[in-house]
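Practice problem 4.
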């Protein structure tokens, strides 16, 4: 069973790695950021409430995010495992998660903050399928268009310098303490997030492939990855 949490600051590469790893493991990639952005785009009541917090780089209130994630974890496709990306983000969310499911592994992305700012400044995303690009390290084939659905790529509103500063501060204050929370439970696996996406993917795979106590190795062999 792969019940995995990706923990790490904004721009560390969680979404990039989660998209491929979830596919390899055959588990759903549950990104609260992507789910919230979809809600904002669709102008659902949840999206309308969340939008201001997201634009400013602040956390969306726990009750909204918990409702969203509980609903996803209850779906049949999550019964064989899941990869949580961007959740939990504070102690209250981590405790709520513990009350609904066990976790096998928490992968903590570690990276120099200056690299994060550069990555976020150059990030472009597809608003339709959420594929993540980078003007420097992973440009689209056609300038400004998604490779998969040709939608015009966007610069996320929270990738502006002021919102990035707030997000990094929020991460330090509210999310980083979860490293201790999961270390105490023996679940934390730090992974260096510098280097190419392929190098980071290899490090992530090796910690995910470790057997949990009392379990035989269940990781699928690596399958093809999209070129980065
Ligand atoms: P969310 O979408 O979760 O944003 P985040 O955690 O800040 O993470 P990012 O998506 O910015 O970065 P990432 O680590 O996924 O990096 P990526 O792979 O894209 O959350 C957004 C907002 O939603 C929050 O601020 C909050 O308001 C709200 N929210 C979400 N979850 C919430 C929760 N649980 N509770 C409350 N509120 C919540 O990579 C970044 C760039 O770098 C890309 O351009 C990529 O191509 C490039 N890149 C990636 N890896 C490499 C590499 N190895 N080398 C070079 N470039 C790379």
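Answer key:
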């Amino acid at each position: 069973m792969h019940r995995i949490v990706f923990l790490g600051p904004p721009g560390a590469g969680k979404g990039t790695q989660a998209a491929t790893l979830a596919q390899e493991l055959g588990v759903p990639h549950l990104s609260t950021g992507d789910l919230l952005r979809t809600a904002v785009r669709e102008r659902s009541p949840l999206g309308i409430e969340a939008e201001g917090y997201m634009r400013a780089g602040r956390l969306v209130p726990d009750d909204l995010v918990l409702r969203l994630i509980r609903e996803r974890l209850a779906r049949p496709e999550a019964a064989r495992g899941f990869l949580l990306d961007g959740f939990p983000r504070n102690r209250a969310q981590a405790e709520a998660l513990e009350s609904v499911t066990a976790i096998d592994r928490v992968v903590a992305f570690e990276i120099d903050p200056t690299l994060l700012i550069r990555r976020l400044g150059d990030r472009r995303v597809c608003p339709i399928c959420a594929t993540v690009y980078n003007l420097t390290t992973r440009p689209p084939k056609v300038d400004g268009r998604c490779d998969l659905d040709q939608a015009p790529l966007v610069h996320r509103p929270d990738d502006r310098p002021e919102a990035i500063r707030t997000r990094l501060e929020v991460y330090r204050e509210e999310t980083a303490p979860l490293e201790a929370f999961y270390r105490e439970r023996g679940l934390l696996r730090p992974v260096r997030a510098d280097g190419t996406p392929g190098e980071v993917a290899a490090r992530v795979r090796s910690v995910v492939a470790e057997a949990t106590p009392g379990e035989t190795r269940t990781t699928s062999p690596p399958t093809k990855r999209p070129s980065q």
